[in-house]
Design brief:
Blueprint lengths: L1 H18 L4 H13 L5 H11 L4 H15 L1 H8 L3 H7 L2 H24 L6 H10 L4 H26 L7 H41 L1
Helix pairs in contact: 2-4, 3-4, 3-9, 4-9, 5-8, 7-8, 7-9, 7-10, 9-10
Protein backbone atom coordinates (compact mmCIF):
# COMPACT_ATOMS: atom_id res chain seq x y z
CA UNK A 1 0.00 0.00 0.00
CA UNK A 2 2.83 2.39 0.87
CA UNK A 3 4.47 1.63 -2.48
CA UNK A 4 1.26 2.48 -4.33
CA UNK A 5 0.94 5.77 -2.45
CA UNK A 6 4.58 6.57 -3.23
CA UNK A 7 4.06 5.80 -6.94
CA UNK A 8 0.91 7.91 -6.99
CA UNK A 9 2.73 10.89 -5.48
CA UNK A 10 5.62 10.44 -7.91
CA UNK A 11 3.18 10.22 -10.82
CA UNK A 12 1.41 13.39 -9.67
CA UNK A 13 4.70 15.27 -9.27
CA UNK A 14 5.81 14.31 -12.80
CA UNK A 15 2.52 15.44 -14.32
CA UNK A 16 2.62 18.70 -12.39
CA UNK A 17 6.21 19.40 -13.50
CA UNK A 18 5.28 18.75 -17.14
CA UNK A 19 2.12 20.86 -17.23
CA UNK A 20 3.22 23.61 -14.84
CA UNK A 21 4.66 25.88 -17.59
CA UNK A 22 1.24 25.88 -19.29
CA UNK A 23 -0.44 27.45 -16.25
CA UNK A 24 -4.22 27.30 -16.25
CA UNK A 25 -4.24 25.91 -19.80
CA UNK A 26 -2.33 22.92 -18.48
CA UNK A 27 -4.89 22.28 -15.75
CA UNK A 28 -7.57 22.39 -18.43
CA UNK A 29 -5.81 19.67 -20.44
CA UNK A 30 -5.42 17.54 -17.31
CA UNK A 31 -9.11 17.97 -16.55
CA UNK A 32 -10.04 16.78 -20.05
CA UNK A 33 -7.88 13.67 -19.67
CA UNK A 34 -9.22 13.03 -16.16
CA UNK A 35 -12.87 13.21 -17.21
CA UNK A 36 -12.51 11.38 -20.50
CA UNK A 37 -10.23 8.47 -19.66
CA UNK A 38 -7.23 8.40 -17.28
CA UNK A 39 -7.86 9.46 -13.63
CA UNK A 40 -5.78 12.46 -12.58
CA UNK A 41 -5.14 13.86 -9.07
CA UNK A 42 -7.13 16.99 -9.92
CA UNK A 43 -7.75 18.01 -6.31
CA UNK A 44 -4.02 18.03 -5.57
CA UNK A 45 -3.31 20.06 -8.72
CA UNK A 46 -6.01 22.62 -7.95
CA UNK A 47 -4.71 22.93 -4.38
CA UNK A 48 -1.15 23.46 -5.62
CA UNK A 49 -2.11 26.26 -8.01
CA UNK A 50 -4.48 27.87 -5.50
CA UNK A 51 -1.65 28.13 -2.98
CA UNK A 52 1.12 29.24 -5.37
CA UNK A 53 -0.98 31.54 -7.57
CA UNK A 54 -3.81 32.52 -5.23
CA UNK A 55 -4.64 35.85 -6.92
CA UNK A 56 -5.58 33.94 -10.11
CA UNK A 57 -7.09 30.83 -8.52
CA UNK A 58 -10.43 31.44 -10.23
CA UNK A 59 -8.80 30.97 -13.66
CA UNK A 60 -7.62 27.50 -12.68
CA UNK A 61 -11.04 26.68 -11.26
CA UNK A 62 -12.90 27.83 -14.39
CA UNK A 63 -10.47 26.20 -16.83
CA UNK A 64 -10.54 22.90 -14.95
CA UNK A 65 -14.35 23.01 -14.86
CA UNK A 66 -14.52 23.62 -18.63
CA UNK A 67 -12.02 20.81 -19.22
CA UNK A 68 -14.11 18.43 -17.10
CA UNK A 69 -17.26 19.29 -19.06
CA UNK A 70 -15.50 18.71 -22.39
CA UNK A 71 -13.76 15.51 -21.31
CA UNK A 72 -16.98 14.13 -19.85
CA UNK A 73 -18.48 14.06 -23.34
CA UNK A 74 -16.40 10.95 -24.13
CA UNK A 75 -18.07 8.58 -21.61
CA UNK A 76 -21.35 10.44 -22.18
CA UNK A 77 -21.44 9.66 -25.91
CA UNK A 78 -20.23 6.10 -25.32
CA UNK A 79 -23.23 5.64 -23.05
CA UNK A 80 -25.52 7.28 -25.56
CA UNK A 81 -24.28 5.01 -28.36
CA UNK A 82 -25.73 2.00 -26.57
CA UNK A 83 -24.31 1.50 -23.11
CA UNK A 84 -27.40 0.18 -21.35
CA UNK A 85 -26.17 -3.44 -21.32
CA UNK A 86 -22.71 -2.33 -20.19
CA UNK A 87 -24.26 -0.32 -17.35
CA UNK A 88 -26.38 -3.29 -16.27
CA UNK A 89 -23.21 -5.35 -15.94
CA UNK A 90 -21.83 -2.81 -13.46
CA UNK A 91 -24.94 -2.25 -11.34
CA UNK A 92 -28.00 -4.37 -10.52
CA UNK A 93 -31.47 -3.77 -11.98
CA UNK A 94 -32.73 -2.00 -8.84
CA UNK A 95 -29.92 0.57 -8.95
CA UNK A 96 -30.35 0.90 -12.71
CA UNK A 97 -34.06 1.70 -12.35
CA UNK A 98 -33.31 4.16 -9.53
CA UNK A 99 -30.73 5.90 -11.73
CA UNK A 100 -33.20 6.02 -14.62
CA UNK A 101 -35.87 7.55 -12.35
CA UNK A 102 -33.38 10.14 -11.14
CA UNK A 103 -32.49 11.22 -14.66
CA UNK A 104 -36.13 11.30 -15.77
CA UNK A 105 -37.18 13.60 -12.93
CA UNK A 106 -34.07 15.58 -11.95
CA UNK A 107 -31.44 15.10 -14.64
CA UNK A 108 -29.58 18.32 -13.89
CA UNK A 109 -29.17 17.50 -10.20
CA UNK A 110 -28.30 13.89 -11.12
CA UNK A 111 -25.06 15.16 -12.71
CA UNK A 112 -24.54 18.36 -10.71
CA UNK A 113 -24.23 16.69 -7.29
CA UNK A 114 -21.77 13.91 -8.31
CA UNK A 115 -19.69 16.55 -10.12
CA UNK A 116 -19.37 18.46 -6.86
CA UNK A 117 -18.19 15.51 -4.80
CA UNK A 118 -14.53 14.38 -4.56
CA UNK A 119 -13.29 10.80 -5.03
CA UNK A 120 -14.27 8.04 -4.42
CA UNK A 121 -17.57 9.25 -5.91
CA UNK A 122 -18.17 7.07 -9.03
CA UNK A 123 -18.52 10.15 -11.23
CA UNK A 124 -18.02 8.38 -14.58
CA UNK A 125 -20.87 6.01 -13.74
CA UNK A 126 -23.27 8.95 -13.52
CA UNK A 127 -21.81 10.48 -16.69
CA UNK A 128 -22.20 7.20 -18.52
CA UNK A 129 -25.77 7.01 -17.22
CA UNK A 130 -26.45 10.53 -18.53
CA UNK A 131 -25.64 9.25 -22.01
CA UNK A 132 -27.64 6.04 -21.61
CA UNK A 133 -30.73 7.96 -20.49
CA UNK A 134 -30.21 10.62 -23.19
CA UNK A 135 -29.74 13.71 -21.08
CA UNK A 136 -29.50 16.82 -23.24
CA UNK A 137 -25.89 17.62 -24.14
CA UNK A 138 -25.88 21.27 -23.09
CA UNK A 139 -27.67 20.52 -19.82
CA UNK A 140 -25.09 17.80 -19.16
CA UNK A 141 -22.13 20.12 -19.83
CA UNK A 142 -23.62 22.93 -17.75
CA UNK A 143 -24.28 20.57 -14.81
CA UNK A 144 -20.69 19.27 -14.92
CA UNK A 145 -19.29 22.78 -15.23
CA UNK A 146 -21.29 24.20 -12.29
CA UNK A 147 -20.55 21.17 -10.12
CA UNK A 148 -16.83 21.32 -10.81
CA UNK A 149 -16.70 25.09 -10.21
CA UNK A 150 -18.24 24.53 -6.78
CA UNK A 151 -15.93 21.61 -5.98
CA UNK A 152 -12.68 23.21 -7.18
CA UNK A 153 -13.71 26.61 -5.84
CA UNK A 154 -14.33 25.24 -2.33
CA UNK A 155 -11.01 23.38 -2.43
CA UNK A 156 -9.13 26.50 -3.56
CA UNK A 157 -10.65 28.73 -0.89
CA UNK A 158 -9.86 26.18 1.82
CA UNK A 159 -6.22 26.01 0.74
CA UNK A 160 -5.89 29.80 0.44
CA UNK A 161 -7.47 30.31 3.86
CA UNK A 162 -5.87 27.45 5.83
CA UNK A 163 -2.67 26.84 3.89
CA UNK A 164 -1.15 23.68 2.36
CA UNK A 165 -1.56 21.75 5.61
CA UNK A 166 -5.26 21.44 4.83
CA UNK A 167 -4.27 18.83 2.23
CA UNK A 168 -3.92 16.24 4.99
CA UNK A 169 -7.66 16.45 5.70
CA UNK A 170 -8.68 17.79 2.31
CA UNK A 171 -11.21 15.16 1.32
CA UNK A 172 -13.17 15.41 4.56
CA UNK A 173 -13.47 19.20 4.37
CA UNK A 174 -14.33 19.20 0.69
CA UNK A 175 -16.85 16.40 1.04
CA UNK A 176 -18.63 18.10 3.92
CA UNK A 177 -18.79 21.46 2.15
CA UNK A 178 -19.85 19.88 -1.15
CA UNK A 179 -22.63 17.87 0.48
CA UNK A 180 -24.06 20.95 2.22
CA UNK A 181 -23.96 23.01 -0.98
CA UNK A 182 -25.30 20.07 -2.99
CA UNK A 183 -28.28 19.62 -0.69
CA UNK A 184 -29.09 23.33 -0.87
CA UNK A 185 -28.88 23.37 -4.67
CA UNK A 186 -30.92 20.17 -4.96
CA UNK A 187 -33.63 21.69 -2.74
CA UNK A 188 -33.59 24.78 -4.94
CA UNK A 189 -33.99 22.67 -8.09
CA UNK A 190 -36.87 20.70 -6.55
CA UNK A 191 -38.57 23.95 -5.46
CA UNK A 192 -38.15 25.43 -8.95
CA UNK A 193 -39.63 22.33 -10.61
CA UNK A 194 -42.54 22.39 -8.12
CA UNK A 195 -43.29 26.04 -8.91
CA UNK A 196 -43.12 25.49 -12.68
CA UNK A 197 -45.49 22.51 -12.50
CA UNK A 198 -47.84 24.39 -10.17
CA UNK A 199 -48.05 27.34 -12.59
CA UNK A 200 -48.61 24.94 -15.49
CA UNK A 201 -51.48 23.19 -13.70
CA UNK A 202 -52.99 26.57 -12.79
CA UNK A 203 -52.90 27.73 -16.42
CA UNK A 204 -54.42 24.46 -17.58
CA UNK A 205 -57.22 24.82 -15.03
CA UNK A 206 -57.90 28.43 -16.09
CA UNK A 207 -57.90 27.39 -19.74
CA UNK A 208 -60.37 24.57 -19.00
CA UNK A 209 -62.68 26.95 -17.15
CA UNK A 210 -62.64 29.50 -19.97
CA UNK A 211 -63.69 26.80 -22.42
Amino acid sequence: MKELIHLYKKYSALLLAFFKPLGYWGIGVLAIVDSSSIPMPMDAFIAYYAWHDSHRFYLYVLTAAVGSAIGGLVPYFIGRAGGELFLLKRINRQKFDALRHRFEHQEFAAILIPSMLPPPTPWKLFVFGAGVFEMRVWSFMLAVFVGRVIRFGVESLLVIHYGPQILHSFSAHTLAASIVIGVLIALGVVYYIFRVRRKKRKKQAEHAESN
